[in-house]
C-alpha cells in the first residue's frame, strides 16, 4: 500500500484504518514494514483508537525521510480488553515530495491463552472463566493474563502499584538528585521514553519516568523506595516490575535490596543502554533473614534522549513489615590525638625524629632515605613503590579536593577526579574503556588508580600529586604503567611543580590499546618539588585514564662519606664520592656537574 501525490489541498492527510478488533492477549505485538523516502516526504504515525476513549493513543511515529529502504516497525500492543481499531495517518503540510508505503502487517501472540482440561501443577493458576492454565508468577502482577481478570482478583493492594492513583506506598528518596515523574502519554522528548503506559496500553494510563533533559547531568540519580517487608527465606518473596529504556543516550536502571536504612544496599539487578521502544518485564527473587526494602535507581546518561519508564510494580509472597530498618553509625570511634614530640633541642629549620628526638636537616625529610631510626622522616611522604593494593594511595593526594571545605561527599560526587578501582567492580561494557585487570596482580581483584570520566565534562583536568619531595639523586626516575583505552580518551601528563612553577615532563594522548603500557620519566637531581599526574577528560565517558605500579627508582640523594674517596672513586667538588666510570658520561652524578667538567 502506498500514497499517491495529491496537490489539490494545502494540508493533506492520508488515513488507513484497520478492521475492528475485539480484544488482545497480554503478549500481543504488531509488526509491519514501512518506506518513507523523499525530500519532503513528511511525517507518519500509527494511532490506537479504543472504544469508549475519546483520545487516540500514538503507538508509532516516523518524522522524516528515512532513506531509500524498507524498515521494520514493531509495536507492543499488550492486553487490550475493549474493541479497538488502528489508524495509520500520513500528514503533508503543503508541499509533498516523496513516497510513503506500508507492507507485511503482522499480529503475533495476540490470542488469549487456550483453555486447559486441567491445571494441577502447584506452579500454575487455573483461570476462572477462560480455563487457561497460566504460570503462577503471573498472578497479581497487574496484568490480565487470563483474559477474564481472575488472576488479578483478591490481590493485596499494598503489594502492587500501577501508578494510576499516585505512588501507592512507594516513596521518592530524599538523598538522591531528583525525583521520578508520574505522567500520561508520551514523555516530553521525542525519540526517547514510552508513548503509553503498560497497565492500560493507552495514553490514558499513568506510569513513572525519569527525565534526562536539562538541568539533569550525567550520572544524576533518581531513587524510588518500596515499603518495608518482613524477612523472606527460600526466595519466597518475588518482585515483578516493567521497565522501558528507549533512547540513544539511555544509561542505567538498577535495583537494590537493603536491610539497613542509611545504606545503598546490595545490588540485585541492573540494565544498561537502549533496550528498544517496549515495556520489558523483570522478575527478581528475594532471600534475606532480616526486614528489607527495595530501591529502584535510574541514572541519567550523557544526553537528553535517555528517559527511563517504570510501571506495574508488584510483590508476590511478601508481607509488609511494621517497623523501621536499623541504621549504622557513620562516625569514627575515638578521637584523634595530636602528635607529640620527644624532648629535643631541634631548631625550626630541623626535623624532629619521633622516637629519639634526634635532629636532622629539613632537606633530609622526604628524600627516599630514612635518616631517623624510626623512619619518621619518610612517614608523611610518597611511598617509593606503590601498587595501590589494599586500597592504599601511598601518599598521593588530590590538591583540588583537599582545598574543598564543608561536606566532602556533597562537593565531590559528580566531579572529574582520581579514584581507586578494580575490574571486579566494573559494570558490563565498562571494560571497553576501563581496565578489567590491574598491572600488579593481573587479576580483576587487583587495584589501580583511574580518572573516572563518567563525571565532569570535556576538557576538565584532575591532578594527583606527591607531597613535597625534599631532594633526589642524579639518577632518579619515575617508572609507571598506564592504561589508556577507549573511543574518547583524553590525555595523561606527568608534571614537576617547584614553588609556583610547573613544567611538563611527559605526555600521552588518545587511545593506546587495551593493555598496560610502561612509561619512564627521568627526574634527576631536584629539590623541594612535587610530581603530578594530570588527566584530561575526553568528549564523553568512554575513556578512563588509569595508572598502576608507580615506582621512584634510584632517587635517594648522594651521601657525603665520612672517609676520603678511594682510588676507584672521583671526589666531587662538593665532597661526594662517585665511581670513576661515571665521569664524562653526560650525567650529573655529582649533583654539581663537577664530574662533567671539561677540566677533569
Secondary-structure map with pairings?
Elements: E1 11-17, E2 29-40, E3 43-50, E4 57-62, E5 71-76, E6 84-93, E7 97-108, E8 124-126, E9 133-135, E10 160-161, E11 171-172, E12 181-184, E13 206-210, E14 221-229, E15 232-245, E16 252-258, E17 266-272, E18 280-288, E19 292-299, E20 308-316, E21 350-352, E22 359-361, E23 385-386, H1 399-402, H2 408-412, E24 418-422, E25 447-451, E26 461-465, E27 469-471, E28 477-485, E29 491-498, E30 501-509, E31 517-522, E32 527-536, E33 544-553, E34 569-571, E35 577-579
Antiparallel strand pairs: 1-6, 2-5, 2-7, 3-4, 3-6, 8-9, 10-20, 11-14, 12-13, 13-20, 14-19, 15-18, 15-20, 16-17, 16-19, 21-22, 23-33, 24-25, 25-33, 26-32, 27-32, 28-31, 28-33, 29-30, 29-32, 34-35
Descriptors for this entry?
600 residues, mainly beta, Jelly Rolls, Low-density Lipoprotein Receptor, 5 domains, six-stranded antiparallel beta sheet, 2 helices, 2% helix, elongated
Written overview of the protein:
The chain has about 600 residues and is an all-beta fold. The protein contains 2 helices and 35 strands. The strands form 9 sheets. Strands 10, 12, 13, 15, 18 and 20 form a 6-stranded antiparallel beta sheet that branches. One of its GO terms (cellular component) is membrane. Pfam families: Ldl_recept_a, MAM. This is MALR1 protein. Keywords: Disulfide bond, Repeat.
Amino acid at each position: 500500500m502506498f500514497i499517491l501525490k495529491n496537490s489539490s489541498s494545502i494540508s493533506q492527510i492520508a488515513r488507513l484504518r484497520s478492521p475492528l478488533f475485539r480484544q488482545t492477549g497480554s503478549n500481543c505485538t504488531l509488526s509491519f514494514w514501512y518506506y518513507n523516502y523523499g525530500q519532503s516526504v513528511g511525517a507518519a504515525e500509527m494511532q490506537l483508537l479504543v472504544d469508549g476513549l475519546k483520545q487516540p493513543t500514538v503507538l508509532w511515529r516516523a518524522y522524516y525521510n528515512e532513506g531509500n529502504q524498507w524498515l521494520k516497525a514493531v509495536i507492543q500492543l499488550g492486553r487490550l480488553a475493549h474493541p479497538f481499531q488502528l489508524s495509520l495517518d500520513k500528514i503533508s503540510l503543503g508541499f509533498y515530495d516523496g513516497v510513503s508505503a506500508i507492507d507485511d502487517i503482522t499480529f503475533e501472540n495476540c490470542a488469549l491463552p487456550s483453555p486447559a482440561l486441567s491445571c494441577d501443577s502447584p506452579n500454575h493458576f487455573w483461570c476462572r472463566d477462560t480455563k487457561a492454565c497460566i504460570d503462577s508468577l503471573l498472578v497479581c502482577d497487574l496484568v490480565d493474563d487470563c483474559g477474564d481478570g481472575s488472576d488479578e482478583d483478591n490481590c493485596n493492594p499494598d503489594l502492587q502499584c500501577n501508578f494510576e492513583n499516585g505512588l501507592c506506598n512507594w516513596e521518592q528518596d530524599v538523598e538522591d538528585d531528583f525525583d521520578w515523574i508520574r505522567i500520561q502519554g508520551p514523555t516530553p522528548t521525542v525519540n526517547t521514553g514510552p508513548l503509553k503506559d503498560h497497565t492500560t496500553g493507552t495514553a490514558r494510563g499513568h506510569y513513572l519516568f525519569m527525565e534526562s533533559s536539562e538541568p539533569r547531568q550525567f550520572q544524576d540519580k533518581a531513587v524510588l523506595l518500596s515499603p518495608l517487608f518482613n524477612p523472606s527465606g527460600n526466595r519466597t518473596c518475588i518482585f515483578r516490575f516493567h521497565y522501558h529504556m528507549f533512547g540513544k543516550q539511555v544509561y542505567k536502571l538498577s535495583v537494590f535490596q537493603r536491610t539497613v536504612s542509611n545504606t545503598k544496599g546490595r545490588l540485585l539487578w541492573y540494565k544498561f543502554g537502549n533496550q528498544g521502544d517496549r515495556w520489558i518485564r523483570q522478575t527478581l527473587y528475594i532471600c534475606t533473614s532480616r526486614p528489607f526494602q527495595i530501591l529502584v535507581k535510574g541514572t541519567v546518561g550523557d544526553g537528553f534522549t535517555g528517559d527511563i519508564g517504570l510501571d506495574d510494580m508488584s510483590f508476590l509472597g511478601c508481607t509488609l513489615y511494621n517497623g523501621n530498618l536499623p541504621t549504622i553509625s557513620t562516625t569514627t570511634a575515638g578521637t584523634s590525638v595530636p602528635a607529640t614530640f620527644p624532648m629535643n633541642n631541634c631548631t625550626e629549620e630541623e626535623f624532629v625524629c619521633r622516637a629519639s628526638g634526634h635532629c636532622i636537616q629539613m632537606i633530609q625529610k622526604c628524600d627516599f632515605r630514612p635518616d631517623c631510626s624510626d623512619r619518621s622522616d619518610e612517614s608523611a611522604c610518597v611511598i617509593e613503590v606503590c601498587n595501590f593494593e589494599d586500597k592504599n594511595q601511598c601518599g598521593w593526594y588530590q590538591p583540588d579536593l583537599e582545598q574543598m571545605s564543608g561536606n566532602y561527599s556533597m562537593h565531590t560526587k559528580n566531579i572529574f577526579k582520581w579514584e581507586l578501582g578494580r575490574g571486579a567492580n566494573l559494570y558490563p561494557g565498562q571494560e571497553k574503556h576501563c581496565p578489567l585487570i590491574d598491572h600488579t596482580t593481573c587479576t580483576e581483584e587487583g587495584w589501580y588508580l583511574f580518572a573516572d570520566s563518567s563525571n565532569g565534562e570535556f576538557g576538565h583536568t584532575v591532578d594527583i600529586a606527591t607531597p613535597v619531595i625534599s631532594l633526589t639523586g642524579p639518577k632518579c626516575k619515575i617508572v609507571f604503567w598506564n592504561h589508556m583505552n577507549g573511543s574518547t580518551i583524553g590525555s595523561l601528563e606527568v608534571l614537576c611543580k617547584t614553588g609556583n612553577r610547573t613544567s611538563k615532563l611527559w605526555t600521552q594522548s588518545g587511545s593506546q590499546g587495551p593493555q598496560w603500557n610502561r612509561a619512564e620519566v627521568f627526574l634527576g637531581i631536584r629539590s623541594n618539588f612535587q610530581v603530578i599526574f594530570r588527566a584530561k577528560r575526553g568528549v564523553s565517558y568512554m575513556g578512563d585514564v588509569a595508572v598502576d605500579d608507580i615506582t621512584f627508582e634510584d632517587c635517594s640523594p648522594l651521601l657525603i662519606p665520612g672517609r676520603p674517596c678511594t682510588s676507584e672513586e672521583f671526589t666531587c667538588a662538593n665532597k661526594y664520592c662517585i665511581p670513576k666510570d661515571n665521569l664524562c658520561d653526560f650525567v650529573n652524578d655529582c649533583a654539581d656537574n663537577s664530574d662533567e667538567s671539561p677540566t677533569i
